[in-house]
Design brief:
By secondary structure, the chain is α+β, with helices and mostly antiparallel strands. It contains 14 helices and 23 strands. It is globular, with a radius of gyration of 24 Å. The two termini are about 35 Å apart.
């Protein structure tokens, strides 16, 4: 791999005697990783059922290395939202931001959702996750991953940080800024990043990072925590941006993160600084660890524990009229309880809103809450996102296939299925209607039963090609 001379000179300055080891690592095969969705399955249970060989990532509690030959993106468990495929080092930011149940969390640069889905899993249906990406196209990929993971307490926004600041001053318990960067740490994974680096290097991105941080900090409540991360080695974008963030607000301080033997500490001397606090940052090098390049810094906004929440929360009145009747008729098969006052309708589209949903009028967004389904032609059609948010035991008419059953793959391709008597849910008898289709007990989507035929209702945009 041919690296730019200017980049190589800077890496020699950063690494010193380790520079040769770094160059050697660039020609080694990179490790691939997956992260278990602990909102759907425990790490221990996943290890028992995983159909391909995996080994633990020592610095990520729910992360595993896997052999790319296993092709896990084609396995039914991937379509059930049991795991997310992610570079091992890229798992560190969400793992080191100490999210707790009930928190109000912002992922400011969230697409395609690798970190947002982990933050959501840690919330486990409580609190609120606002996941933002200014690119509408990228935000669509983010939304799909949020839905795949069964997240119901999210708000997917496509706004510039300055606009969000107008709505959410002092609002968030935790903020993650996985900032746009020059991508030096991804050169081995994606060599095309080298050409991008030559067009827009550290000088360009450091200015962007500082602008984003300036808009994000006012949204952090007193006592709240913010994690800044990049996938680059550049001191200008890393220690330089961190020192700039510290200069914005005297209440901010850096805090230590959970360590690992392969982590390298921050180096204030690389930016000509004498601030030893910068050593609390973490830099990940591919020659020291099995992963690509990354950088992390964790801030706390003072020591207080002031309550979050400047914005007013939405008032909701629940469903009325025909929409309520049609949803209630469908919900007769649901064992999962949805609080009536959190259900709302917009043009026949029915949503289950997060408990802590703020006023959002004037914001551009793709999704608020969990999309339950749509009322049309005097019937209720349940959504793909509802299926992913349920457990098999949450729905009366559920059918589960083994991961080895060829009908699972036919279902994921959108085909109509034939059922045997042994497949019909117990107690269903001759009753037709919506069936929750599962693989080994984990929901994949909907089908509509007519006798022993199952019409496919799997989301057309998600189908296995």
């Amino acid at each position: 791999m041919e690296l730019p001379r200017k980049f190589c000179d800077e890496m020699k300055r950063i690494l010193g005697d380790e520079y040769g080891d770094y160059l050697a690592s660039m020609n080694e095969k990179r490790k691939s990783g997956l992260r278990v969705n602990t909102a759907k399955i425990s790490v221990e249970e996943f290890e028992k059922i995983c159909p391909f060989e995996i080994t633990r990532i020592p610095y990520i509690e729910n992360g595993f290395f896997y052999d790319e030959a296993a092709n896990p993106s084609k396995h039914p468990y991937y379509f059930a939202g049991l795991y997310y495929l992610q570079d091992p080092s890229a798992m560190t930011p969400a793992s080191r931001l100490p999210v707790e149940k009930g928190d109000v969390v912002l992922d400011l640069c969230a697409a395609p959702g690798g970190k947002a889905t982990e933050l959501a899993a840690r919330l486990d249906g409580t609190g609120l996750l606002i996941a933002n990406d200014v690119s509408g196209k990228r935000a669509k990929a983010l939304l799909k991953n949020i839905e795949l993971f069964g997240v119901e307490n999210s708000f997917i926004v496509t706004e510039y940080p300055a606009k969000l600041k107008q709505y959410f001053t002092g609002f968030f318990d935790k903020i993650l800024i996985d900032a746009p960067c020059s991508g030096e740490g991804m050169f081995r994974k994606d060599p095309s990043m080298i050409r991008a680096w030559e067009r827009h290097g550290p000088e360009f991105y450091s200015g962007l990072q500082r602008e984003i941080a300036e808009q994000a900090l006012p949204m952090l409540r007193e006592g709240g925590m913010l994690l800044y991360s990049t996938c680059t080695f550049s001191p200008l974008e890393n220690e330089g941006t961190v020192e700039y963030i510290l200069s914005i607000d005297e209440n901010l301080r850096l805090v230590n993160m959970e360590g690992y033997t392969g982590f390298a500490r921050g180096e204030p001397g690389l930016i000509g600084s004498g601030n030893r606090e910068l050593e609390k940052c973490v830099r990940i090098f591919p020659h020291r660890m099995e992963g690509e390049g990354h950088f992390l810094a964790l801030f706390q906004n003072g020591d207080g524990a002031a309550a979050a929440g400047k914005p007013l929360y939405q008032e909701r009145g629940g469903l009325k009229g025909e929409e309520k009747c049609l949803f209630d008729l469908f919900a007769e098969n649901l064992y999962r309880h949805f609080e009536p006052n959190r259900i709302e309708s917009r043009n026949g589209m029915i949503y289950y809103m997060p408990e802590k949903m703020p006023q959002i009028r004037g914001l551009r967004f793709l999704r608020s809450g969990l999309f339950l389904g749509e009322v049309k032609k005097k019937r209720f059609e349940p959504s793909q996102s509802l299926a992913m948010a349920l457990k098999a035991e949450d729905y009366r008419q559920a059918i589960t296939f083994s991961a080895e059953d060829e009908r699972v793959f036919r279902y994921l391709k959108g085909e109509t299925l034939s059922l045997g008597e042994e497949d019909v849910p117990e107690g269903a008898g001759e009753k037709n209607g919506y069936i929750l289709v599962c693989v080994d007990g984990f929901p994949l989507g909907w089908g509509k039963r007519s006798g022993f035929t199952l019409k496919n209702k799997y989301h057309a945009g998600w189908r296995l090609m």
